[in-house]
């Protein structure tokens, strides 16, 4: 069945198809028959992307992947609808695509989404630290942060709503017999009382910091950045956590991601010099896109640097809760707790 869904006034194609998250991925053939009817089934090739730790991502194409049209199919991870607002994700993707900052959506389906393939290479830890590239990242983030809300009322930062939701889900999961408890109980996880107390302390401290509420990616790790050497540009991908949030949170979260994912090493956290250079490029982009100049003073850079340092704790806390939930619900073979707690 084919319908057109509407999110915040924007329509998109929705197909009543469920795609299996294990090979041979039943349901994909039907998706491609609707999206690319000119493709012969025997000619279709598949590439599985293995970097993701939340969802299953596959690319389908005919001929050479380097030259041909590619349809990305993302199958949502088990129970991720508990803590990811899929309607919000579609809304954010539509906004970002309109502004040239995100991929085009081809369709949604029962348990996933199909969208445009962004050509280039996913960054690694080495590329992330190269000045020419991290300045491109800062510039792109400044552009995204300048996108205004379409709502008539001021946007509210999603941080505390999301953290409260994570805590509530952690609390509920402890009494849910269907949830995987074994591996989690072996770890030294703080009590709920401690976690709630830490959230309140963070909120009390950070709510007094004057950080603008802007459209944020909220999950900008290296593999979510695509570098196109031919164009000399970067684009961000995987916007499932995108929403309006504190400017300093989005930047601090990205700096935390310098430590890596598979082999976390906090000696790779960006130096003060790198951060200030990054923040200078960011402020130049953000100010230019918002029409308030195109240069950043040392004082402005230092002020933002301090705010970013403070929000770093909130980033660690929210992803720690996320890791606890993933450890209990996810079927993906990844040791979430070892990397975040």
Q: What pattern of helices and strands is seen along the backbone? A: EEHEEEHEEEHHHHHEEEEHHHH
Q: If helices are DSSP runs of H or I spanning 4 or more residues, what is the number of helices?
A: 11
CATH class of the largest domain: Alpha Beta
Radius of gyration: 20 Å
Which strand-content bin applies to the residues? 15-25%
CATH fold node name of the largest domain: Aminoglycoside 3'-phosphotransferase, Chain: A, domain 2
Distance between the termini: 43 Å
The description of the largest β-sheet is: 7 strands, mixed
Report strand order across the widest sheet: 1-2-6-7-5-4-3
> Architecture of the largest domain, according to CATH?
Alpha-Beta Complex
Mean pLDDT: 90
Number of strand segments:
12
**Contiguous uncertain segments of 5+ residues:** none
Q: Helical amount among residues, as a percent range?
A: 40-55%
3D shape: globular
Alpha-beta classification: alpha+beta
CATH H-tier superfamily of the largest domain: Aminoglycoside phosphotransferase (APH), C-terminal lobe
Pfam family, one: Choline_kinase
GO molecular function, one term: ethanolamine kinase activity
Keywords: Kinase, Lipid biosynthesis, Lipid metabolism, Phospholipid biosynthesis, Phospholipid metabolism, Transferase
Protein name: ethanolamine kinase
């Amino acid at each position: 069945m084919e319908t057109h869904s509407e999110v915040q006034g924007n329509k998109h194609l929705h197909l009543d198809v469920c795609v299996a998250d294990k090979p041979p991925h039943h349901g994909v053939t039907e998706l491609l028959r609707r999206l690319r009817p000119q493709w012969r089934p025997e000619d279709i090739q598949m590439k599985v992307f293995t970097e993701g730790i939340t969802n299953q991502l596959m690319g389908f194409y005919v001929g050479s992947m380097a030259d041909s049209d590619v349809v990305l199919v993302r199958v949502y991870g088990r129970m991720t609808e508990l803590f990811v607002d899929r309607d919000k994700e579609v809304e954010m993707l539509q906004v970002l695509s309109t502004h040239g900052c995100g991929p085009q959506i081809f369709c949604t389906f029962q348990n996933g989404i199909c969208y445009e393939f962004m050509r280039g290479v996913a960054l690694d830890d080495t590329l992330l630290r190269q000045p020419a590239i991290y300045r491109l990242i800062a510039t792109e983030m400044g552009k995204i942060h300048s996108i205004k809300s379409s709502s008539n009322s001021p946007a509210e930062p999603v941080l505390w709503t999301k953290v409260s939701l994570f805590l509530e889900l952690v609390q509920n999961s402890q009494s849910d017999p269907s949830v995987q408890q074994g591996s989690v109980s072996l770890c030294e996880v703080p009590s709920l009382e401690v976690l709630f107390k830490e959230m309140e302390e963070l909120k009390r401290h950070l709510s007094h910091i004057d950080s603008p509420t802007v459209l944020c990616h909220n999950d900008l790790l290296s593999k979510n950045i695509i570098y196109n050497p031919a164009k000399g540009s970067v684009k961000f991908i995987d916007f499932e956590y995108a929403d309006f949030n504190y400017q300093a949170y989005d930047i601090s979260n990205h700096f935390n991601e310098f430590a890596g994912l598979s082999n976390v090493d906090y000696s790779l956290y960006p130096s003060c010099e790198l951060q200030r250079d990054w923040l200078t490029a960011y402020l130049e982009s953000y100010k230019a896109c918002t029409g308030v100049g195109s240069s950043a003073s040392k004082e402005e850079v230092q002020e933002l640097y301090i705010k970013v340092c403070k929000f770093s704790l909130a980033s660690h806390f929210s992803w720690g809760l996320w890791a606890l939930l993933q450890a209990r619900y996810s079927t993906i073979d990844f040791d979430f707790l070892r990397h975040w707690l």
